[in-house]
## 1
Amino acid sequence: SVCLSVCLCLCLCLCLCLYGPLYALYLGPHYTVVVNTYQHAREVLLQRGKEFAGRPKMLTTELLTRGGKDIAFSDYSPLWKTHRRLVHNSFTLFGEGTTKLQSIVLEAVEALCCDLQASRGQAIDPDPPLMRAVTNVVCTLVFSSTYQHGDPELTTVMEYNDGIVQTIARGGLVDIFPWLRFLPNQTLTTLTECIAIRDQLLSKKLEEHKVSLIGGEPRDLLDALLQGQTRIKHNQGSGVRGQGLGVEQEEEGISDDHVLMTAAEVFGAGVETTSTTLLWVLAFLLHHPQVQERVQKELDEVVGCGRSPDVSDRTHLPYLDSVINEVMRIRPVSPILIPHTALTHSSIGGHSICKGSRVLVNMWAIHHDPEHWDQPEDFRPERFLDDKGLRFTPSCFMPFGAGPRVCVGESLARLELFLFVSGLLQRFSFSPAPGVSLPDLEGRLGVVLQPLRYTLTVTPRPGWEGVKGEREGEGVWWKE
Ligand code: HEM
């Protein structure tokens, strides 16, 4: 591995070309271009979005997605477009315009509050309860299962998901030098084992759904995908062209593998990103207690303590929204997005880019560029408000990417972030655990940019100390 590192460094040093804010390096068999400015990111993601909408083939992601049967790692193609549209429409069924998704998230917020309340002023690590809550949202959304704390199936889901995330984060060299897979490789072995457990559980859910599927309103995402799949098959059978499918792919359509990989991807793409953003929010609030107080004041004025905040409150809570935005700016969980590839010969900033080059959009640099952000290292939620205190979103703020490959789960993620942050700050104040230093704000880059583990104490706010709640099958969960 020392030899490999030396080779890698030599490759990097020899092949690094610097074009002002654009870097190109020759890594393995491909050119990789790193885009560091908003102007160039606009070209890649929006102006020439389609030309740069490819994804590189990597060994780990091919394993993970049965050769690109998902959305995120599948190459740009007519079939991919149909698949993405189907997933987008399925999310819309539960998200925008319905209260179904909101009810799912609010139930998870309620359960999370119980977990936090149970700490009774002791220092706790917020990572496990947040991860449980966000995983539960996805389990309910995807296959209608909601688990109690400690349920073995929930533990299985969390364990394999974590295993996949950890091994993908460590799998980097195999993706650059694929021949490494012929050497003993514990990371690849663990990844394969986690994928097998994942597929067993999701296949079981898929078969159960096929048996119990009835027409009409879908119960969850699996139902919606199965119904969409049937519709596309039906169209093909009747000789009607599936929406934009090419001739060679028309035969294939959306297979069971596509449905399964989509369900798997909602866990992969939706859990770690959302729970990590929530961990960053709490970490920054511990560092900035005055920001926490201001959010709580806004919540008290708009919502009070007689009911839970819901999406209809969002327009009236601009400061809370600005805190979430500022956290996503200063610590984007996906700091280089997902790698893109050039599908054709193209250019960025006037420099020609050859077909097949990988393009990494450095969102970290864009979100910290002093040309666009005043004192970018400072945590200042007000930068997302105008002088009247209304929402203001600079165009160079792109935590979910932009263009044809923009995050499919953006509205779900935004809804979750809003409901979790508002629900938690309505009821609790968060402070550093006594005698323990404040969380480290540098973070560590794995699959996402995560804060290092930290602890905090949770104190019920005035009016919430003696509140009782009930959860089905658990009786009273909170009693003073
Ligand atoms: C705070 C939460 C989230 C953040 C910050 C986030 C961010 C991102 C980013 C930066 C990308 C890559 C865009 C690009 O490559 O240009 C992406 C892609 C994606 N995200 Fe998210 N995401 C979040 C939550 C979710 C959720 C909840 C889901 C699903 C339920 C999801 C599903 C996806 C999928 C499927 C893609 C691939 C899109 C494609 O390649 O066409 N994400 N996300």
## 2
Amino acid sequence: MDRIYKTLLFDGKISLAIIESTDIVNRAIEYHGLTPVTAATLGRTMTASLFMASNLKNKGDKLSVTVCGDGLGGHVIVSVDSLLRVRGYIDNPKVDIPLNEHGKLDVKRVVGKGRLTVVRNMGLKEPYSGSSEIVSGELAEDFAYYYTVSEQEPTAMALGVLIGDGGKCVGAGGMVMQALPGCDDQTALEAQKIIMKYGDISSHIKTRGAKGIKDEDFKGYYFTETFPKYECICSKEYIDALIVSLGREEAEDILNEQGEISIECQYCDKKYKYNKADVDALFSGENDG
Ligand SMILES: [Zn+2]
């Protein structure tokens, strides 16, 4: 089961999060038919987004992350809510390219150069939006950079997705450390050194799980534990509203051309179909007058 562990290190000067997201990545692979390299790209983005969402304070808060680069994969979109229900997709899920010069999945080529944007919706307040340049394309560095420049929170991050034979994810997750107010440079450097040991975080997750890392490497600390999952919040009501927003004329045009209106959710591939009677029922309210 996927999970997020969080604690404070160095007398409360550094926050630590350990994220396990293997099941979530496998669900994304299943929904979208991802190749190993697009699974790694979407998986790393979902893992970082889950960390961001784990800091949302109120029920109902949510955020979306867009990795908008010029790489082979097109855009990567992830949305998460405060209950840690995550969903996401990548424009070109079938991109399949050779490993990079280090023998690793070439996420950088899938992402390319561009911008990373985060939008937070918190209740009635105006959505908060921040963005930063994609500096690496490997994503961990990009999310760390986002936090550092856009949120003024110095951050170090490791992200990884390990794909086994048969295209299944066998280990995915991340580790994040952030310098809290009052943190001195020396401590921040120490934290950076620790996280550098987890460059292959996905192998750690595969062999020990987030729980093993926590129990073995950070013995004696008190951790909170939460359970993220891949869950799409699309619904018939939502799609109904989408069709109504098209307007009756447009909806009937599509019906005439295609015989039915078929809408597929980009996040979970669920199909919503409407025939003439369904459309009539949706717009029936308009005839009452
Ligand atoms: Zn859906």
